[in-house]
Amino acid sequence: MARKIMLNYRRADTKGFAIAIYNSLVSNFGEDKIFMDIDTIEPGTDFVKVLEKAVQQCDVLIVMIGPQWLGIKDSSGERRLDNEGDFVRIEIKAALEREVTVLPVLVQGAKMPTATKLPDDIRSLARAAGIRH
């Protein structure tokens, strides 16, 4: 049975790469096996509930990490990753708690974030073996 794969990414950092990987995965595994918010969430749907369900059903979470992933800030100037309500953080945390495979994909020369740069609840992401794309 094919595994369910979810893509986790920051639109401001890796959207183009995420779309390319999504398209490749869909052509290899089928659209029903891949979750990416851009094509999967219907208008009017509770975004948080859909993301929570997707994380609960995935076997692999691909975390797209670009050169600015770690430092992207919100409108108030705070680092988005430090916000407990940040969707990228929520998805990673849920996947780590479920002990599903978390696969960091490093793009555009990005480096794996060190544990000290990550919030406590997703700190173990730094131990995941990543791949460069």
The separation of the N and C termini measures 26 Å
Major sheet size, sense and barrel closure: 5 strands, parallel
Q: Based on CA inertia axes, which overall geometry fits?
A: globular
Task: Please write the string of helix (H) and strand (E) elements.
Answer: EHEHHEHEE
Mean pLDDT: 91
How many domain modules?
Answer: 1
Can you tell me the CATH topology? Answer: Rossmann fold
**What order do the strands of the largest sheet run in, or round the barrel if closed?**
2-1-3-4-5
- Strand-residue proportion: 15-25%
Provide the CATH architecture. 3-Layer(aba) Sandwich
Number of helices: 4
Describe the structure.
This protein is an alpha/beta fold. It is 35% helix and 15% strand. The chain starts with a strand and ends with a strand. The chain has four helices and five strands, in the order βαβααβαββ.
What attributes characterize this protein structure?
single chain; 133 residues; alpha/beta; Rossmann fold; 4 helices; 15% strand; globular
